[in-house]
Amino acid sequence: MTEQKNGTAKAKKKASMSVLLGAAFLMATSSIGPGFLTQTTVFTEQLAASFAFVILISLILDVFVQLNIWRIITVSGLRGQEIANKVLPGLGVFLAALIVLGGLAFNIGNVAGAGLGLNAMIGIDPITGAIISAVFAIFIFVVKEAGKAMDKFAQIAGFVMMILMVYVAFTTSPPVGEAIKNTFMPEKISIFAIVTLVGGTVGGYITFAGGHRLLDAGIKGVESIPEVTKSSVTGIAVTGVMRVALFLAAFGVVSQGLAIDPSNPPASVFRLAAGEVGYRMFGVIMWAAAITSVVGAAYTSVSFIRSFSPVIEKYHNWIIILFIIVSTVTFVFVGQPVNILLVVGALNALILPIALGTLLIAANKKDIMGNYKHPLWLTITGGLVVVIMGYLGVMTLIEQLPQLFK
């Protein structure tokens, strides 16, 4: 009997570790999309070794955001929109609308990225590649254990991307010493680059991807804090490894004086680093980055409306599939609506301060958190991120709104 109990306990622990790792990789791979690849390459070309400092600061801010949000969600046992509605009635609906709108718009870009990835990998037409990729993503949510399938896929895709990225970083032989020096003593600082990286890594739906996955797997309560903390930091660490590896690969190319093709910067880096084989490897990374972002965006966006209706809760997997289909059909027949994407991008920048600010207020409400006391250092650091990202998000929105009416 004792052996049976021990066996059950071990199985539960193994399942819990799998979910925690899956949540970490879901958040990480959701943030590592087509935009991630382009941003990192372009900023490396502009800032060279100084981009190492930008990566360091953005990762520190990312950790503050995720430690706060994952902890508050799992301790309260409520999803982001439910917490927001308890803080202020209707706020959760507003937040959900922003998340779904942003997630749908950017999923069009993710689907397009998946098509381009297959084009670079095996040479098929990007639209055909996008459709094949969408069918693959849909299959994940058709299988009986969709959550487990999503966890496993995120982990495998994440590991493949990391291995390939680290390999390419080695082939370009970047001046690592210069990069390390500039990590702490940069020759130039770009606030815009820091804000872009933070928004791209923990902005919009990405902020909630891991926390909502843990809730769906039944991981919640004060007793889960140590595991949740490890999971959230693991997610940021995976993103950090990918960012550093891609930066070093691009820095190696830039330091050799080679010209990066502005029409497709990340593909250019891989081709310059490892020739035609490198370009095919870029296709694998682009596809993996895009398809995991398609899955993460669809899953997390729909998780924001699940609590609004028993019907949505019951059929949420089918609504996720519909979300992917709508994104794909829009790309195939309309393309990427650039102006709308620009404005929604600015709105997405506002989601982080609104969401984090709301959850920090909730963290000090007894009717939401019970007897739990949120650490003061997390409240202060989280508050600083809210102020900084809120101000810069508003400035970006004001700048981008006129684009919609051109």
Keywords for this entry:
single chain, 406 residues, mainly alpha, Amino acid/polyamine transporter I, globular, disordered N terminus
Q: What does this entry look like structurally?
A:
Helices cover 83% and strands 0% of the residues. It is mostly helical. The chain is globular, with a radius of gyration of 21 Å. α1 (2-31) packs antiparallel against α10 (206-216), α3 packs antiparallel against α11 and α15 (338-362) runs antiparallel to α17 (376-404). The chain has helices spanning 2-31, 34-47, 51-76, 80-87, 91-122, 126-142, 146-171, 176-184, 191-202, 206-216, 225-255, 265-303, 310-314, 316-333, 338-362, 366-369, 376-404. The relative contact order is 0.20. The chain has one domain: Amino acid/polyamine transporter I, CATH 1.20.1740.
| CATH 4th-level superfamily | Amino acid/polyamine transporter I
Content-based structural category: mainly alpha
Distance between the termini: 72 Å
How much beta, percentage-wise?
under 5%
SSE topology string: HHHHHHHHHHHHHHHHH
Please report the total strand number as a whole number: 0
Layout of helices and strands, plus pairs?
Layout: H1 2-31, H2 34-47, H3 51-76, H4 80-87, H5 91-122, H6 126-142, H7 146-171, H8 176-184, H9 191-202, H10 206-216, H11 225-255, H12 265-303, H13 310-314, H14 316-333, H15 338-362, H16 366-369, H17 376-404
Helix pairs in contact: 1-7, 1-10, 1-11, 1-12, 2-9, 2-11, 2-12, 3-8, 3-9, 3-10, 3-11, 3-15, 3-17, 4-5, 4-15, 5-6, 5-12, 5-14, 5-15, 6-12, 6-14, 7-11, 7-12, 10-12, 11-12, 12-14, 15-17
